[in-house]
Design goal:
With about 150 residues, this protein is mainly alpha-helical. It has 3 domains: about 45 residues, no CATH class; about 40 residues, no CATH class; about 50 residues. The protein contains 8 helices and no strands. Helix 7 runs antiparallel to helix 8.
Length: about 150
């Protein structure tokens, strides 16, 4: 079952799984007191009695390990969590927008997507379609980076 919810913050994840699984099952999974589990699911902006939850602690450790040059180790928890969900974690390539404006980047997206769809319509090889897909994704990533820059 999927949800239309926006991505959850770490504390929202703990609150959500308590609702889905029940607090006692969560207590058993995480081997912690119910009070501790409750603190992990508390909104840090609205509650003074909070604790850093395991996700935040692992994220902090990953940032530190990455900063000292061990990205391979830092990415391991994400890969471990992705595996039971049949997901894959790969490092995103560095993306450099090739247009000076956001509008220019947006205009670059369309031809790449059209080429991808045209290739499918014409029945090109899987390898060719993969290359066209990669080009379209690259163009969209460039637009996203330019948008993020514009938003500050």
């Amino acid at each position: 079952m999927t949800s239309d919810l926006p991505p959850l913050k770490s504390w929202q994840f703990f609150k959500a799984i308590a609702k889905v699984l029940g607090r006692s099952q969560c207590h058993d999974i995480f081997n912690c007191s119910e009070r501790e589990f409750y603190r992990w699911g508390a909104d840090p902006d609205a509650c003074g009695d909070i604790r850093k939850n395991p996700i935040d602690l692992i994220a902090a450790a990953c940032r530190k390990v990455d900063l000292v040059g061990h990205t391979d180790i830092a990415v391991a928890p994400a890969r471990i969590l992705a595996e039971p969900l049949n997901c894959r974690v790969t490092l995103a390539p560095d993306v450099e927008p090739n247009r000076s404006t956001l509008d220019g980047e947006c205009l670059d997206d369309h031809p790449a997507l059209v080429d991808f769809h045209e290739g499918i319509r014409r029945g090109l090889s899987l390898e060719a379609i993969g290359a066209l897909r990669d080009k379209a994704i690259q163009e969209i990533e460039e637009t996203f980076v330019k948008y993020r820059e514009a938003r500050g």
